Amino acid sequence: MKKGIIFDMDGTMVDNMMVHHRAWQRKLAELGLDLSIDEVKEKIHGINEEILERIFGDRFTVEERRRISWEKEAAYREIFLPELRLLPGLQGFLEMAKAANIPMAIGTAAPTENVEFVMDNLRLHPYFKGVFDAKSVTKGKPDPEIFHVAAAAMGLSTADCLIFEDSVTGAEAARRAGAQAVIVTTTHGREEFAHFNHIVRFVEDFEGLELRNLGLIG
User: Fold this and answer.
1) Looking at the domain 17-82, which fold is it?
2) What is the pLDDT of residues 169-204, one digit of tens each?
3) Alpha-carbon distance 70 to 73, whole Å?
4) What CATH number labels 4-15+86-214?
5) What is the C-alpha to C-alpha distance for residues 170 and 34, in angstroms, rounded to an integer?
């Protein structure tokens, strides 16, 4: 029996990953790096400053990486606001979990501004014991630190939690955390997760999900 739930945010709670990919594609092109959208999906994941350092090495200073990250995220929020909504079924799923007294937390690699953009506009704060983002940890996914922090906020170990993720990197972080995962296939096909054995279910969204069937209540 699982005692708590940890959600990733981008691509898991809101279907926004293609907006992120397009924003990254545009920003990287401005920096002289032309990538296809498939290349962006493959290479661009994790914390923004880490992404820029991984791709460009020491070309940019720390301050320049922060500025580039801010510009990309500001563009993302402007593009996404008119279509911001939870994935189908998630509002009801959150209500069910809250009514069953199952603690919930968020562990995301998203910048704080983007997390608050979603949390405030969709009025989600009352559902969660803790909300943790890129500034909450020293290492991004696939390091499991963010999930350990989120679990601790609920007074649980990660092994006691069910983690909802959408990315291969996030699934690897859940594996390293010793947790089982449900994969939301907004961004990646289930065939990309074939090498994992800790995934208990693949879903397109949250419609029809039952707490009992996920091992969250008896």
Assistant:
1) DNA polymerase; domain 1 (1.10.150)
2) 999 999 999 999 999 999 899 999 999 999 999 999
3) 5
4) 3.40.50.1000
5) 25
